[in-house]
Amino acid sequence: MSAMLSVRDVRKTYQGGGDALKGVSLEIAEGEILALLGPNGAGKTTLISIICGLSTMTGGSVTVGGHDVIRDFRAARRLIGLVPQEIALEPFERVQNTVRLSRGLFGLPAKDGKIEEILRRLSLWDKRDEPIRSLSGGMKRRVLIAKALAHEPRVLFLDEPTAGVDVELRKDMWDIVRDLQAQGVTIILTTHYIEEAEAIADRIGVINKGEILLVEKTAALMKQMGRKRLILELTDPVDTIPDALSHWSLEHGDAPNELVFTYDGHAERTGINRLFADLKTAGLGLRDLTTRQSSLEEIFVGLVHKEGAA
Amino acid sequence: MNWHAIRAIYLFEMARTFRTIWQSIVSPVLSTSLYFVVFGTAIGSRIDEVEGVSYGAFIVPGLIMLSAITQSISNGSFGIYFPKFVGTIYEVLSAPVNFIEIVIGYVGAAATKALMIGVIILITANFFVDIRIEHPLAMIAFLLLTCLSFALFGFIIGIWAKNFEQLQLVPLLIVTPLVFLGGSFYSISMLPPAWQTVTLFNPVVYLVSGFRWSFFGVADVALGWSLLAILAFTCLCLTAIWWIFRTGWRIKT
Ligand SMILES: Nc1ncnc2c1ncn2[C@@H]1O[C@H](COP(=O)(O)OP(=O)(O)OP(=O)(O)O)[C@@H](O)[C@H]1O
Ligand SMILES: [Mg+2]
To answer: Per the domain annotation, does B204 fall within a domain?
Structure first.
C-alpha cells in the first residue's frame, strides 16, 4: 500500500539559524492519525510548513497522495488542509466570508451548502456574519478549523490544536477528528501532551531537535508503558547472576546489589511468586523492593534525554 | 488557471474596499476640489492658457494621474502587506495557486480601486472646468495601464516592507516627488532647457504626457515613448514578482 504522505530525508536550515530539521523521514497511510510529539523548538511546525508550502526545504522531498509538493504543487495542495499553530485571521472580516475565501482559493465554487454544513458542524453558523475580532479565542480556533476544512481536504494538519482551548472545545475537536478519520481523512497533529496523543492517535512520532526519534503504533507504546520494573535490592552485591535465576532474564540495576525484573503489569500471572522462591533457592537475601511503571511520559523524556546526552 | 481562486481573492479584496467605501471616495473628492481651488482658481487666474488649453483643464489629467499612481501603490502594497502582517498569508501560500493567479487577484483589486478613484476625480473635475476628451479609448487604456503597473509596483513594496514605516517610505520619498516633478501641473516646455533634459529621466513624465495627449491631443514627449515607458515598467515589475515567488523572498521562511 502506498503512503498518503511520504516525507523523505527532509532537511531545513533557517537563514542565520541552526538546523531545524536534520533529515526527517516519515510515511503515513491513508486514514491514519499520527501525533507528532516533541518539546518546544523540536521542528514540528517547520516540518508542517515545508509540507504545506509555507517554508522552503533545504533538502529532501515530500509527496502527498503521490504528488510531489513542489513539482506537482497544485495536485498535492488540493489534498491538504492546514490549521496553523498561531491564530491568523483578519479581524474585520466576517466568519462566513473568510471561509468562502478559503474554499475559493482551492478552486471550488462557493457552494453555500457546503460552507453551511461546515459552519454548523463547528457551531459557527450563528456567528457567520460576525466580524472575527468579536469572537473569543476558542471560537477563532474553530474558524481556523472551518477554513482548513472548507475544501474538504484528504490530509489535515493540526498544529497544536488544543493550545489554549477549554475542555468542551477539546472534546468537540476530537469528535471532529474521529469523524474525519471515519471518512478516510489522514490527520497529522502536533502536541506537547502525551495523554492527548495517546487518546486520539493510531501512531505516535517523537521528534526532538529536528530528528524523529521514534514512530510507533500507539498500542505498542502503550504496551511498553504497561511494563513494570521490579527492583530487587539485595543484602549483598552480586557480580554474576546465579544459574538458578538465568531463565528470569534479570538485569543489573544501578547499584551493585540491585537486580531488575521487567514484567507485564497487566498480566494475570506476573511470576513474582516463583521469582521469590528461586531467589531463596539461589541463596540471595532481600533488603528492599520497589516497582516502577514506565509511562509514555517516561519513554518520551528518556528518549529526549538520551538524545541530549549523545 | 485556477479562476475560482483569482475570483475569490479579488472579491475578498474588493469587499475590504467597500467596507470603507466612504473614506475611499470622500478623500479623493475633497483633495481634488482643494487642488482646483488652489491651482485652478488661484494660480490659474494668472496663467491663461498652456498649449492652447485653459490652465484649469490642463491640470486635470495630471491630477488624475497623481491620484491613480499614489492610490495604486498604496492599495497594491497594503493588499499584500496586511495578510503578511496578520499572518493570513499562510492560506494563500498553501493553496493550489501560482504567483500569476495571486498577482491577478491582489493587483487586479488594487488597480480597480485606483481606477474607480480616477474616474471619481474626473467626474469631480467636470464640475469645475469643461473637459474635452479627444481620444477616450486611449484615455481609458492609459489610465488602466498606469493603475495596473503601479499596483504591481505597490505589490512589490508590500512584500518588501517589514513594517508600516517602510510601507510609507517608498511612496513618500520617491514616488510623490517623481509625480510632482512629472509635469502634472505644468508642461515641461515651461522649464529651462537643462531641466527639460533632466525631466526626461523621470518615468512619470511619459505617463502624464501620454495621458494628457488622450485629452487634448498635445503631448510633451512622443506618444510611442509614453507607451514604451509604461510597458517597460510593467515588465520590470512582473519580472521582480516572478523572482520573488520563485525564491520565496520575504514571503517564505
Ligand atoms: N523563521 C524562522 N527563522 C529562524 N529560525 C526559525 C524560524 N522558525 C523556526 N525556527 C527555529 O527552528 C526550530 C524549530 O522550530 P519549530 O517552530 O518548528 O518548533 P516546534 O516543534 O513547532 O516548537 P513549538 O512546540 O514551540 O511550536 C527552532 O529552533 C526555532 O527557533
Ligand atoms: Mg510549533
So the answer is: yes
pTM of the complete model:
0.86
State whether residue B14 sits within 8 Å of chain A by CB: no
Nearest chain A residue (CA) to B6: A105
Domain interval for residue B205: 3-247
Instruction: Determine whether the interchain pair A89/B86 forms a contact, defined as Cβ–Cβ distance below 8 Å.
Output: yes
Instruction: Look up the ipTM and state it.
Output: 0.88
Q: Where are the domains of chain A?
A: 3-223, 227-293
Residue A131 sits at the chain B interface (C-beta within 8 Å): no
Looking at the CA of A158, name the nearest ligand: 2
Rounded to the nearest 10 degrees, how much is the dihedral formed by the CA atoms of A198, A203, A205, A206?
A: 30
Are B5 and A106 a contacting pair at CB < 8 A?
yes
Q: What pLDDT, in 10s, does the model give residues B36-86?
A: 888 777 777 777 787 788 888 888 999 899 999 999 999 999 999 999 999
Low-confidence ranges of chain B (pLDDT < 50): none
Burial of A60 (0-12, 13-18, 19+ CB in 10 A): middle
- For the stretch A265-286, pLDDT in tens is 777 888 899 999 999 888 889 9
Task: Please check whether residue B139 lies inside any domain of the structure.
Answer: yes
Chain A residues within an 8 Å CB radius of B96:
73-75, 77-78, 105-107
Do B102 and A53 contact (CB within 8 A), yes or no?
no
Assigned domain for B252 exists: no
Number of domains comprising chain B: 1
CATH fold, domain A227-293, is Alpha-Beta Plaits (3.30.70)
From A11, A13, A40, A192, give the residue whose CB has the most ligand 1 atoms within 8 Å, as the site to mutate. A40
Query: Half-sphere exposure of residue A261, counting CA atoms within 13 Å on the CB side?
Result: 24
Bridge partner list, A191: A37
Ligand number nearest to the C-alpha of A50: 1
Architecture of the structural domain at A3-223 = 3-Layer(aba) Sandwich (3.40)
Q: Are strands A203-208 and A59-64 parallel, antiparallel or unpaired?
A: unpaired
